[in-house]
Amino acid sequence: MADQTARVSLPDVEGHSLQRALSHWPVARDSIFETYGALFFDGALPVELKEQIRATLAGQGNCVLCASIGTNPLPADQQPSRRDQLAVGFAEVFVQDPTEVDASAIEVLKEDFSDAEIVELVTWCAIALQGQIIGAALGVPPATAEDSAAFIAWQEEGARA
Asked: Which domains does the chain have, with CATH numbers?
């Protein structure tokens, strides 16, 4: 059943609205989400930080699906670490204009992150943002309660693997 709020039809296939929209080009859908999952669960940066970055980008990326799905990975009584604050601050700069990331931003990150972690951080910001750009351009609708539950279950299952 097509959703009238999306700019393209959303075929009646499994997945949230972005996955359904991208099912018009299955190779792109499969490639994007396979890459997203591999990078989310692999690497030196913890998945909780990657989710915090994804949520930060989503709040500014104009994709209503991305902004409406996911979790707050930090308990309400826990303060983010300096590393978390630096990474999220970097993501906030990155989402405004990735081409404005300069040497000084990377130098600040080098105080707390290795070169490998910086590469992972920049790459994760780009991968997370690309999905939001696609979702915003296609006008995909917000996540349903079922979408959110499935996304959280996917994160928890992947983190245990």
From this structure: 17-160 (1.20.1290.10)
